[in-house]
């Protein structure tokens, strides 16, 4: 890499001040970071060109360099004012200041316009979006609610959970991100929501499902049973002769739909016998002739 500032700008040591400025302007147009976003090689070359112009563009510094009093980096300070000012920018952007280009911003050509717009945009930059994760219960994803996130700095962020939210959905809280600069407003807070599994409910689109244990008596004789839903228990009728696997529908007890209304809760019945042996039940089944004749494995079950 060339270190002699004349070599960096591609001019001779006898070049006039106008020639030096012209060479710098040509290279700056080509290498400026705003014209080469993400190009680290061009950015480093631009810094080198800016350093060279910082020295040769100043008549006193140039004379001292030509006389051997200072080296290519400058006598008193190894960092030139152009990049030093940029490196200390509060927002971390290496080119926040307009210093070093002030003599070019008064022009009317497209490059001058670019520099002016870039300077204004950086002086009024919108704050960054901040990302957070939030785990919520299944029931809260159906009914909605309010949650609070504790931030790393000890602050808090209140989050309103809309009814019907799905796992992986991202909520945007306007203006709750990092502060901006100048007239730039704050960024947003983006909340990545995780819906925790529930031991009772599962979700399929706008519907939710539940497996409900019932007794043999309720299956044979029917009856009214209490059924959990995301909004609380309700009473449901079990028809006579219900089997394990029979699915009943509670309309409107599912997840809210975007267009209005709600899905359903599908209740799948499961016959459960007592844990301890029941002599009375055993005696009945032993004397139940038709029960012995019925073979559910031959497709007789309905």
TrEMBL record:
Keyword Chaperone: yes
GO biological process: protein refolding
A GO CC annotation given for this chain: cytoplasm
Residue ranges constituting the J domain according to the UniProt record: 4-69
Keyword Nucleotide-binding in record: no
Region (Disordered), start-end ranges: 283-302
GO molecular function, one term: unfolded protein binding
Keywords: Chaperone
Pfam families for this protein: DnaJ, DnaJ_C
Protein name: DnaJ domain-containing protein
């Amino acid at each position: 890499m060339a270190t002699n500032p004349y070599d960096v700008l591609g001019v001779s040591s006898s070049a006039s001040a106008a020639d030096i400025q012209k060479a710098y302007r040509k290279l700056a147009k080509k290498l400026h970071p705003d014209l080469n976003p993400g190009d680290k090689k061009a950015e480093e070359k631009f810094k080198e060109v800016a350093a060279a112009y910082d020295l040769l563009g100043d008549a006193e510094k140039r004379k001292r360099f030509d006389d051997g009093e200072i080296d290519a980096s400058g006598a008193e300070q190894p960092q030139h004012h152009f990049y030093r000012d940029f490196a200390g920018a509060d927002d971390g952007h290496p080119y926040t200041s307009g210093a070093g280009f002030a003599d070019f911003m008064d022009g009317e050509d497209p490059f001058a316009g670019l520099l002016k717009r870039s300077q204004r945009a950086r002086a009024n930059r919108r704050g960054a979006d901040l990302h957070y994760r939030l785990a919520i219960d299944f029931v809260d994803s159906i009914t909605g609610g309010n949650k609070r996130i504790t931030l790393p700095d000890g602050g808090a962020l209140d989050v309103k959970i809309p009814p019907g939210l799905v796992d992986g959905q991202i909520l945007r809280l306007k203006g709750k991100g990092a502060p901006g600069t100048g007239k730039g407003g704050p960024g947003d807070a983006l909340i990545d929501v995780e819906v925790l599994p529930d031991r009772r409910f599962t979700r399929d689109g706008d519907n939710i499902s539940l497996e409900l244990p019932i007794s043999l008596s309720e299956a044979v004789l029917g009856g009214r049973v209490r059924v959990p839903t995301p909004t609380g228990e309700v009473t449901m009728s079990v028809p006579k002769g219900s089997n394990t696997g029979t699915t009943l529908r509670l309309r409107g007890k599912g997840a809210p739909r975007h267009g209005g209304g709600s899905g359903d809760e599908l209740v799948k019945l499961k016959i459960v016998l007592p844990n301890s042996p029941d002599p009375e039940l055993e005696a009945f089944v032993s004397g139940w002739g038709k029960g012995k004749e019925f073979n559910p494995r031959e497709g007789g079950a309905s």
